[in-house]
Amino acid sequence: MSKSALLVMDLQNSIISRYASNPEVIAPFQQAIEAARTHHIPVIYVRVGFMEGYTEVHPRNKMFGRLAQSGIPAGGEGMQIHDSVKPQPGEPVITKVRVSAFAGSTLEQILRAQEIDTLILSGISTSGVVLSTVREAADKDYSITVLSDACLDLDPEVHGVLMDKVFPRQADVMTVETWAGSLA
């Protein structure tokens, strides 16, 4: 029998702030978290974060190299999980140092320790953490479901292509409502 976990990825203050003009975008994440908790599915939070001084970031890294040069505190408020999806006591918050949820984190050890073989993915951004995690999770032989409306990307066209054409090759893609309905 399979055992699932919901991954809530990169819903940190600095990332959610890019979508502040439309607070309704958080609702599907909240619904997915509530459905997982109701059905005793572990909720695991993943965030990107660095040590003081960004010692893990090489200057050649186009994405994180600019962040290291920005002067933004490595462990500041921007790196914390947004209050609208705040973890409950006992729900792990894993820190990664690259795009994939597995990169430089303890995610795989936690999944193995809990005998989880099925991942339900949600996160910001579709073309970043979700794409990288789908690819790596598939290579690690996890069963994967991507919650299409609990993933966001600043480019709606890229989001659509990934959901319609790329992810279905390695994952089931469905809405939060469809997934939650399948749990009953």
UniProtKB/TrEMBL annotation:
Gene3D superfamilies: Isochorismatase-like. PANTHER family: ISOCHORISMATASE HYDROLASE, PEROXYUREIDOACRYLATE/UREIDOACRYLATE AMIDOHYDROLASE-RELATED. It comes from Paenibacillus terricola. This is Cysteine hydrolase. Keywords: Hydrolase. InterPro entries: Isochorismatase-like_dom, Isochorismatase-like_hydrls, Isochorismatase-like_sf. It comes from the Bacteria. Residues 4-177 form the Isochorismatase-like domain.
